[in-house]
UniProtKB/TrEMBL annotation:
Transmembrane segments: none annotated. Residues 5-128 form the LD-carboxypeptidase N-terminal domain. SUPFAM superfamilies: Class I glutamine amidotransferase-like, LD-carboxypeptidase A C-terminal domain-like. Its EC number is 3.4.-.-. Belongs to the peptidase S66 family. It is an enzyme of class 3 (hydrolase). Keywords: Hydrolase. Pfam families: Peptidase_S66 (PF02016), Peptidase_S66C (PF17676). CDD domains: Peptidase_S66_mccF_like. This is S66 peptidase family protein. Residues 202-329 form the LD-carboxypeptidase C-terminal domain. It comes from Streptococcus caprae. GO terms for molecular function: hydrolase activity.
């Protein structure tokens, strides 16, 4: 069972800003009500500009979280878009390798990069939720579907299975203090959708936010992302991808179909779709470009591997938690993904 949660800001320093103080306080109270001790790493609350200017501070916090024997779970505050800049401070002198211990690591969005860093060193991690996005949900409680997976992870340090949510929620437009206690607009969801291939497939899952993965191959967002990511071999080799299931989901930026296709094509160029056992795709936020994305997936992924769409993971709410590195057994007919212990 998890007893102490160590919170890190590895991408954006949003958690340290005054405009989220009401969310911060709410999240702390929720974790404490679960019987958890909350520990903020030294630089986690230093704010957006400070952490943007000092990636070495973010790296130090991750290293300290692994070194602190009291911390059972490392929980990312939020995503962002430049956690790749931690690479030199974690890998140039094997800094991360030297302190790595078996702990629960949970985050999503740009944290995709951190998941790949930890995968490089053999750590199994968990994808799909973060402190601000989930624990600090402004409703009177965490969204029930999200809360159930978070509680399971706290109680057991694992996730046994994932089933679809019965509902999905529209993204909030107001995160101010006035929104405290307000409910999200909800809609009935339709479950997992098999776009192609066999309904049953298995393998360990790896992947994350499509835009973050694209940054490894493209300098459109940051001029140095390729220069830092590729020498450090952040994107796993084809040998490593052999037999795995790729998880993809898109951010709140809601990429237009043309960009979505471009990002998938960049992945295709690696040869990954020739060696995977399947692809899992998260529901797009507010179902924007839902039909277009499905069509593009089937056009770009022209191998016969299965594609399972509309998972409740990533930027659309509510969010499940997906274990990386554990054998997953996907059954689209039964609408379940089961994980081996």
């Amino acid at each position: 069972m998890i007893k102490t949660v160590g919170i890190v800001s590895l991408s954006s320093g949003t958690l340290g800003e005054d405009f989220v103080k009401h969310e911060l306080d709410l999240g702390i109270q929720r974790l404490e009500d679960m019987g958890l001790t909350v520990s903020f790493m030294p630089h986690a609350l230093e704010g957006i500009e400070e952490l943007k200017a000092h990636p070495e501070k973010r790296a130090k916090d991750l290293l300290q979280a692994f070194q602190d024997d009291a911390v059972d779970m490392i929980l990312c505050a939020i995503g962002g878009d430049d956690t790749y800049r931690l690479l030199p401070y974690l890998f140039e002198d094997d800094q991360l390798k030297q302190v790595l211990t078996s702990k629960v690591f949970l985050g999503f969005s740009d944290t995709t990069m951190n998941h790949l860093m930890l995968h490089k060193l053999g750590l199994k991690t968990f994808y799909g939720q973060s402190f601000l996005a989930d624990v600090c949900e402004l409703d009177e409680e965490m969204l029930p579907y999200s809360a159930a997976y978070f509680q399971e992870l706290v109680d057991t340090r694992c996730i046994r299975e994932i089933r679809p949510s019965q509902v999905w929620y529209e993204a909030r437009e107001d995160y101010s203090e006035q929104a405290l206690g307000t409910k999200r607009v909800s809609h009935r969801d339709r479950g997992f959708e098999l776009l192609q291939g066999p309904a049953q497939f298995s393998g360990p899952i790896l992947g994350g936010c499509l835009e973050s993965l694209f940054d490894i191959f493209d300098n459109s967002r940051y001029a140095d992302s390729i220069d830092l990511c590729q020498p450090n071999q952040l994107f796993p080799s084809l040998e490593d991808w052999q037999g795995k299931i790729l998880l993809l989901e898109t951010s709140e930026e809601r990429p237009e179909p043309e960009l979505y296709r471009k990002m998938l094509e960049a992945l295709k160029q690696t040869g990954i779709f020739e060696v995977l056992n399947g692809v899992l795709v998260g529901k797009p936020e507010d179902e924007i470009y839902d039909a277009e994305y499905k069509k593009i997936l089937q056009e770009v992924i022209d191998t016969d591997i299965p594609i399972l769409y509309n998972l409740n993971v990533g930027h659309a709410t509510p969010r499940a938690i997906v274990p990386f590195g554990v054998i997953a057994h996907v059954d689209a007919d039964e609408q379940v993904i089961r994980f081996e212990e």
